[in-house]
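quick one, 364 residues, struct below
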Amino acid sequence: MHTIATLPPVAPVRLHHGHPILEPVTAHAWESRVVLNPAATLLPADTHLEQLFQTWNLAPFQRARLRHAGGACVMLYRAQGEPDPENQHAPSSLGLALFSPTLTLLYRHTKPVIKPESPFHNLGVEDPRCTRVGDTFYLYYTGYATNQPGNPDAPRTVRICLATTEDFLDWTLHGPVAGDINTVDNKNPALLPRPVDGRWLLLHRPMEGPDAMTIHLAEAEQPEGPWHTLGPLMKSYAYQEFDRSWIGAGGPPEALDDGRFLMIYHQGHFTADGQREYDLAAALLDFSAADPVRARIEPLMRPTEEAERLGDPELGVDNVLFTCANYRLQDQLIIPYAGADSRIFGASVPVDALVAALEAQAGA
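---
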């Protein structure tokens, strides 16, 4: 049996001295309490980004800083305000913020870009992951909904939904994706950045049914589906410190030059007396192998800072690290993540060192 006290062979570094890179704005009702679990994509400084500058109506100094930085991190973050008394719930919206590649905030949209108004996500637009295919950005997210608004006792659904955009302001909402992955409550969808043997692959985590609360794999001919599940990809280890453990996808896995993928994912745990912990972990995936999971490092990063251990007393969840994004910046993997479901932070880890540590484990 594993122990959570095992030290990782490569340790991520908290960026900006561990300070939040994004915090709630009390003047905005939709994001006045917590911001968390962002999708993110890195855009290079090219003609496409210049066109987006025009769409976003950025100030000249913001454009200059992003050009000088070599590009922009576009972040789509989950936000919550005060709970809605009618539903006894604080609905989640998605906000838009722009950062330098090293996660210095340069612009923040004042209104949500996707609101919890459609019937398939009328309780929340949650935990998005963003994958670029050409000039289209595919945002897979969790749609949290009820068919009886105003009735807190009515059944609620948790389904994998899709929205697409070319500019992050104008969105096409496709709703729950077609296929067999939404036959049970499901979440943590992450679209891989390129096809494998002509198939698009999607990570997901069913909350019910066989092999629930483990990372599953689905395939499709197109990045929007319909999706056919292939069953479980990997399960959590058992830990001597916890009564129950599970795992789910983080951001879309990073494609490596040799056809493999580097995946950051989350581990969830409960002790017998109900204490929770969420950590980050890493795996090396090779879909040409009989077992695609070649190696894994659990944990890679645990909540140790105060803002990671203590969240908003009503909306936050204590002792949690959670990520929906990662991107490569030169030799570093940048990982935006939420601490205690309340604030957004950043970390980095050397890609080559992390891959080498995973390879050493695979060869052990």
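The mean pLDDT is 96.
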